[in-house]
């Protein structure tokens, strides 16, 4: 099967840029990355149709090679699906932005839990038993959730992800001092 | 009989449209959803009985013959999965309706819930009966898009946050799947599973391995197999209880189903079996260690879900008929039990006001019925002898012992240990939430408030919990009834384990060797070297042209 470089190179570039953008924290870039990867996959499907330049439609009687219609049907379906999902993603990101006034994704709760747990472990003496595991399970401090729960849009953009992580860290170490007895 | 096949997908889709149109009349909408799912459950069982005689039902959509058109294939495995999924979907739907009635529909915006739920059902069923890899992709997309809507219902921040992870991960796996389909098509010139199965063997070994790995990674993300499972415990627990229940029960199993098909029909060669076994081992162990560390019941159950996916992958990875049969039985058992446990957790949440075992207590006294409804599936999941969980695990371990390689014995040991470890978090939940007196919980009031504040999921609209006073709500009869029905189904699987296991064995035997599937779909003519008396349905002229299910 011969592959046209004119399709192959854009596909590779789109995949590369898409993966790069998908790894960003900003949701807008994640959407763009998804769109690029989606289009790269569509081009990949187009490449599978074989050599370019053959007739799109023949009357069936001619001996000439004609291009394979199936990949085009697959691409159409894939485009429709990508389109619908992108629309949903944009609505989701808009909603997220309305709630949090941030394009950045909130730091992952579990990651915070692990980092705070590691911090707490380092500072508390070895006497702490394994029950600590489900004590320090809940990492987001109240300042993270409260403005959202109360429906107040957060106008100040001061709190960056690292700050909140550091704050959670500090809270956890403060807690771990107070949490002596276990159920 | 053959005309029933497309109805499995069409009924939910038409029902979804009707439910969307009747969004202003909640009673009509609920009625449509219940009737549609009940109808599909009946159709599923009829199909199961009909294919269990040995014939495979193949519907060529639009009357196009097999390699050109879209084939819908119902064999024993498909029919079994469709039936059990429809029953589970119906029970969860009744639970959700009960919850909606009890809450005055504040929590679940009912107008979109029912259509999305039906679309999800259509996607699941479509994936189960797809005889075409691209149709499988479309089925996955239908169910995923519906699941995005259901997961982010209400649009609160925790759900949006969890939904973002889930959606981005799912999209990536879908694109990987699509790329794999493109490559399969480029190398074989077909997307029909039966024809692929004939042609893949002729490809160079490296190409086969590449395609095989791509498909397994794509399905592995959907099935939440270990290195690809981290999205699951983050995203499932935030959704409303009925949504989590149906996701946990069904969505990962669609991935497992796709892995079973990949391993048996598309790539029957055993080259990646050892890799699958190692992945199964890691999934079981890492998943259950995660479950032990969780305080929140929903999160704990999500981790046990990941862990138990490992058992199914173990059965598939053994590569023998007995292994696949045990994996099928275990999948059916796990769909029912995991869903039941999540429904019971929904009841616990209503009675206790929270799902954190730090702040639950005295539930056995407060509502013994919830205790029973939690206890039976918990024992079942943990694999206590009389129950189906034990029988499924026993089947898996026997199949592994038959294989008898050192790796298989390692897996037998790991599976037994993980089974014990599964009991630990379940029993701990029982001890703290049900046996611990309420008064003992109150002694830890200060700690409870701390817990509640930094529980990342505590901000759900419903959980108006402050201090030690928990906002408990009454249980609606429908919710208890639906959960009881699910417990009854899980007990029924135990009682009927003999016939069901025999059915799973026949389904596993069907998948041993690709000839059966191929000759059923393509007809005996294309498979000259084979004796395929059961292939005549493929050319049945009475095929009714039906609507194309692909959008």
TrEMBL record, chain A:
<comment type="similarity">
    <text>Belongs to the CPA3 antiporters (TC 2.A.63) subunit C family.</text>
</comment>
<feature type="region of interest" description="Disordered">
    <location>
        <begin position="118"/>
        <end position="183"/>
    </location>
</feature>
<feature type="transmembrane region" description="Helical">
    <location>
        <begin position="30"/>
        <end position="50"/>
    </location>
</feature>
<dbReference type="Pfam" id="PF00420">
    <property type="entry name" value="Oxidored_q2"/>
</dbReference>
<protein>
    <submittedName>
        <fullName>Na(+)/H(+) antiporter subunit C</fullName>
    </submittedName>
</protein>
<feature type="transmembrane region" description="Helical">
    <location>
        <begin position="70"/>
        <end position="94"/>
    </location>
</feature>
<feature type="compositionally biased region" description="Acidic residues">
    <location>
        <begin position="126"/>
        <end position="144"/>
    </location>
</feature>
<keyword id="KW-0472">Membrane</keyword>
<feature type="compositionally biased region" description="Low complexity">
    <location>
        <begin position="161"/>
        <end position="183"/>
    </location>
</feature>
<dbReference type="InterPro" id="IPR039428">
    <property type="entry name" value="NUOK/Mnh_C1-like"/>
</dbReference>
<keyword id="KW-0812">Transmembrane</keyword>
<keyword id="KW-1133">Transmembrane helix</keyword>
<keyword id="KW-1003">Cell membrane</keyword>
<dbReference type="InterPro" id="IPR050601">
    <property type="entry name" value="CPA3_antiporter_subunitC"/>
</dbReference>
<feature type="transmembrane region" description="Helical">
    <location>
        <begin position="6"/>
        <end position="23"/>
    </location>
</feature>
<dbReference type="GO" id="GO:0005886">
    <property type="term" value="C:plasma membrane"/>
</dbReference>
TrEMBL record, chain B:
<keyword id="KW-0472">Membrane</keyword>
<dbReference type="InterPro" id="IPR001750">
    <property type="entry name" value="ND/Mrp_TM"/>
</dbReference>
<keyword id="KW-1133">Transmembrane helix</keyword>
<keyword id="KW-0812">Transmembrane</keyword>
<dbReference type="GO" id="GO:0042773">
    <property type="term" value="P:ATP synthesis coupled electron transport"/>
</dbReference>
<feature type="transmembrane region" description="Helical">
    <location>
        <begin position="166"/>
        <end position="187"/>
    </location>
</feature>
<feature type="transmembrane region" description="Helical">
    <location>
        <begin position="136"/>
        <end position="154"/>
    </location>
</feature>
<dbReference type="InterPro" id="IPR050586">
    <property type="entry name" value="CPA3_Na-H_Antiporter_D"/>
</dbReference>
<keyword id="KW-1003">Cell membrane</keyword>
<dbReference type="Pfam" id="PF00361">
    <property type="entry name" value="Proton_antipo_M"/>
</dbReference>
<feature type="transmembrane region" description="Helical">
    <location>
        <begin position="80"/>
        <end position="98"/>
    </location>
</feature>
<feature type="transmembrane region" description="Helical">
    <location>
        <begin position="110"/>
        <end position="130"/>
    </location>
</feature>
<feature type="transmembrane region" description="Helical">
    <location>
        <begin position="56"/>
        <end position="74"/>
    </location>
</feature>
<feature type="transmembrane region" description="Helical">
    <location>
        <begin position="407"/>
        <end position="427"/>
    </location>
</feature>
<comment type="similarity">
    <text>Belongs to the CPA3 antiporters (TC 2.A.63) subunit D family.</text>
</comment>
<feature type="domain" description="NADH:quinone oxidoreductase/Mrp antiporter transmembrane">
    <location>
        <begin position="130"/>
        <end position="415"/>
    </location>
</feature>
<feature type="transmembrane region" description="Helical">
    <location>
        <begin position="207"/>
        <end position="232"/>
    </location>
</feature>
<feature type="transmembrane region" description="Helical">
    <location>
        <begin position="239"/>
        <end position="260"/>
    </location>
</feature>
<feature type="region of interest" description="Disordered">
    <location>
        <begin position="522"/>
        <end position="551"/>
    </location>
</feature>
<feature type="transmembrane region" description="Helical">
    <location>
        <begin position="369"/>
        <end position="387"/>
    </location>
</feature>
<dbReference type="InterPro" id="IPR003918">
    <property type="entry name" value="NADH_UbQ_OxRdtase"/>
</dbReference>
<feature type="transmembrane region" description="Helical">
    <location>
        <begin position="272"/>
        <end position="293"/>
    </location>
</feature>
């Amino acid at each position: 099967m011969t592959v046209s470089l004119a399709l192959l190179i854009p596909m590779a570039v789109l995949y590369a840029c898409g993966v790069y953008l998908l790894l960003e924290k900003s949701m807008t870039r994640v959407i763009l990355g998804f769109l690029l990867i989606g289009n790269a996959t569509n081009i990949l499907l187009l490449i599978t149709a074989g050599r370019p330049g053959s007739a799109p439609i023949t009357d069936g009687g001619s001996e000439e090679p004609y291009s394979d219609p199936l990949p085009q049907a697959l691409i159409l379906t894939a485009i429709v699906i990508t389109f619908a999902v992108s629309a949903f993603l944009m609505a989701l990101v808009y909603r997220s932005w309305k709630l949090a006034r941030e394009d950045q994704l909130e730091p992952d709760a579990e990651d915070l839990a692990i980092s705070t747990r590691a911090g707490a472990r380092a500072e508390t003496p070895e006497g702490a038993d394994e029950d600590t595991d489900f004590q320090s399970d809940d990492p987001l401090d109240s300042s993270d959730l409260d403005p959202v729960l109360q429906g107040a849009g957060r106008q100040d953009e001061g709190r960056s992800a690292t700050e909140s992580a550091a704050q959670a860290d500090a809270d956890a170490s403060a807690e771990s001092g107070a949490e002596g007895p276990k159920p | 009989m053959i005309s029933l096949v497309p109805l499995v997908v069409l009924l939910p889709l038409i029902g979804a449209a009707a439910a969307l149109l009747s969004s202003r009349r909640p009673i009509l909408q609920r009625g449509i959803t219940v009737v549609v799912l009940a109808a599909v459950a009946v159709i599923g069982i009829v199909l199961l009985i009909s294919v269990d005689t040995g014939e495979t039902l193949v519907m060529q959509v639009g009357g196009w013959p097999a390699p050109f058109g879209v084939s819908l294939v119902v064999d024993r495995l498909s029919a079994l999965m469709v039936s059990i999924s429809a029953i589970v979907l119906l029970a969860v739907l009744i639970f959700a309706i009960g919850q909606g009635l009890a809450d005055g529909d504040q929590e679940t915006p009912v107008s979109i819930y029912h259509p999305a739920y039906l679309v999800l059902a259509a996607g699941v069923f479509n994936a189960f009966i797809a005889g075409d890899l691209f149709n499988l992709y479309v089925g996955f997309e239908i169910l995923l898009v519906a699941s995005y809507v259901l997961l982010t219902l209400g649009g609160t921040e925790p759900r949006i946050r969890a939904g973002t992870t889930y959606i981005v991960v799912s999209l990536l796996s879908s694109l990987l799947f699509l790329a794999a389909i493109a490559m399969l098509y480029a190398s074989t010139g077909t997307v029909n599973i039966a024809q692929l199965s004939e042609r893949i063997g002729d490809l160079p070994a490296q190409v086969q391995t590449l395609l095989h790995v791509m498909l397994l990674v794509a399905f592995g993300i959907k099935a939440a197999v270990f290195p690809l499972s981290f999205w699951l415990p983050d995203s499932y627990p935030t959704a409303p209880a009925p949504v989590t229940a149906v996701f946990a029960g069904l969505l990962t199993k669609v991935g497992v189903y796709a892995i079973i098909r990949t391993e048996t029909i598309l790539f029957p060669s055993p080259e990646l079996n050892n890799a699958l076994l190692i992945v199964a081992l890691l999934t079981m162990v890492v998943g259950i260690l995660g479950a032990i560390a969780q305080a929140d019941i929903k999160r704990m159950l999500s981790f046990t879900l990941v862990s138990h996916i490992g058992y199914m992958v173990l059965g598939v990875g053994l590569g023998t008929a007995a292994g696949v049969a045990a994996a099928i039985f275990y999948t059916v058992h796990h769909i029912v039990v995991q869903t039941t446990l999540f429904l019971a957790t929904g009841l616990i949440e209503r009675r206790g006001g929270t799902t954190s075992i730090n702040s639950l207590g005295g539930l056995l006294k407060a509502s013994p019925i919830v205790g029973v409804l939690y206890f039976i599936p918990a024992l079942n999941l943990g694999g206590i002898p009389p129950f189906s969980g034990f029988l499924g695990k026993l089947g898996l371990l026997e199949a592994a012992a038959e294989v008898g390689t050192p790796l298989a014995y390692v897996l037998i040991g790991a599976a037994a240990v993980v089974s014990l470890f599964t009991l630990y978090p379940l029993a701990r939940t029982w001890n703290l939430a049900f046996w611990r007196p309420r008064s003992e919980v109150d002694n830890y009031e200060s700690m409870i408030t701390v817990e509640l504040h930094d529980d990342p999921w505590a901000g759900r609209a419903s959980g108006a919990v402050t201090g030690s006073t928990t906002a408990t709500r009454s249980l609606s009869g429908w919710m208890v009834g639906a959960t009881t029905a699910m417990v009854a189904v899980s007990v029924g699987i135990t009682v009927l384990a003999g016939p069901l296991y025999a059915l799973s064995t026949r389904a596993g035997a069907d998948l041993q060797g690709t000839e059966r599937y191929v000759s059923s779909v393509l007809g005996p003519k294309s498979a000259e070297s084979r004796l395929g008396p059961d292939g005549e349905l493929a050319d049945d002229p009475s095929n009714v042209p039906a609507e194309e299910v692909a959008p």
